[in-house]
Amino acid sequence: MKAIKKILYPTDFSDNSRPAFMYALLLAEKFGAKLFIQHVFSEERTLDPIFVAGGFKIDEMWSYMQENFIPMVKKFVGNEAKDVEYEAVLSNGKPCDEIIRFAERENIDMIVMGTHGETGLEHFMIGSVAERVLRKSHIPVLAVKGK
After folding, report:
1. With 50 as the cut, is the pLDDT of residue 53 above it?
2. Which domains does the chain have, with CATH numbers?
């Protein structure tokens, strides 16, 4: 079995993603691995009614995300990762593609991600990001059910 030195944890920062984060931290501690915390800014998600009704523009939202990403990660991580080396990664594109692209480029040994997310019509139209990563990735994926 290949040593686990790099773990990727893709997140949307929701409460439902917390259990997967805790698993990623536990594994990073156990194996002495570096943890990459990735968020993918997706233009598909900006078509949600809340964004459209609010009059948000995609380029403004991307700029906001770039400016506030590191503080968001620090708030999300809190004191939980005090014994783990981690790096925050912000990507822009389709979540599944960006997760796999980053994992392959950085020679990630394992992806740990939550299985919550879209439900109902959104799941039917868009599909689950975790489901697509599981199907397309050649890297082992640990899928953790959300709350």
Report:
1. no
2. 6-144 (3.40.50.620)
Q: Considering the chain, what is the average pLDDT of its residues?
A: 84
What pLDDT was estimated at residue 113?
Answer: 94
Nearest to 109 by CA among 143, 145, 141: 141
Confidence of residue 45 (pLDDT cuts 50, 70, 90): low
DSSP 8-state assignment for residue 56: -
CA atoms within 13 A on the CB side of 116: 15
pLDDT confidence of residue 146: 77
Question: Backbone phi, then psi, for 31, in 5-degree steps?
Answer: -100, 0
Out of 8-12, 25-29, 79-83, 116-120, pick the least confident: 116-120
Q: Diameter of the chain by CA atoms? A: 50
In terms of DSSP H, where are the helices of 78-136? 95-105, 120-126, 129-136
Give the position of tokens 């770039």.
66
CA–CA dist 107, 8 (Å, integer)? 10
Alpha carbons 102 and 99: distance in angstroms, whole number: 5
Token digits of residue 112: 């740990």
